[in-house]
Amino acid sequence: MGNNIRLAAEAYYNNSSNPELKQLAWEFFQSIDTDRDGRVVDSNFFSQLDVNRDGSLDFVEFLTFYYVLKTRNVWCADCRVNLSGLYFTCVECFDGGLDTFDVCAPCYSANRFCHHHGRDQFLDSFVLLLSRRGVSHVKHSNMVS
């Protein structure tokens, strides 16, 4: 069934005479393809949303999916997992107003990422928030040795 639905969706898209609708579909895809690799989320992400484990998303689970896409669009730069909890951010990228560089705790801990700023430039999301609130004892140089 899945392949037939995919073929039908692609056929409707390819044969649409409404360029605005095609553009809207493409823009929506691009809005959730945060790293521009032509892919969006992994299957594990959907299983995390399926709270009642019935193999599908009910309305509230779908609302959660929509909420995450619109507000929590942060993904690990290495393993591509959605970063909904604690994660590490490059402070230099964050402060520079550029796209942030974020990694999950397991990838940060195992040094499974490649980034042009040093490891001492990373803070976890909680400590980064505290540092921005002016908590003076929080400095990334004290966190990483």
List keywords for this structure.
145 residues, mainly alpha, 48% helix, zinc
Total number of helices:
8
- Rounded mean pLDDT is 80
Q: Roughly what fraction of the amino acids lie in strands?
A: 5-15%
Identify the strand order in the major beta sheet: 2-1-3
The profile of the biggest β sheet is: 3 strands, antiparallel
Computed structural class: mainly alpha
Unreliable stretches covering 5 or more consecutive residues? none
Radius of gyration, whole Å = 19 Å
| Tally of strands | 3
SSE pattern, N- to C-terminal: HHHHEHEHEHH
Kindly report how far apart the N and C termini lie: 53 Å
**Level of helix content?**
40-55%
Anisotropy-based shape: globular
Domain EF-hand: 44-72
GO molecular function: calcium ion binding; zinc ion binding
Keywords: Calcium, Metal-binding, Zinc, Zinc-finger
Protein name: EF-hand domain-containing protein
Describe this structure in words.
The protein has 145 residues and is mostly helical. The protein has 8 helices and 3 strands. The chain has a 3-stranded antiparallel sheet with strand order 2-1-3. The protein starts with a helix and ends with a helix. The mean pLDDT is 80.
Short note summarizing the structure:
The protein is mainly alpha-helical and 145 residues long. The protein contains eight helices and three strands, in the order ααααβαβαβαα. It comes from Ziziphus jujuba var. spinosa.
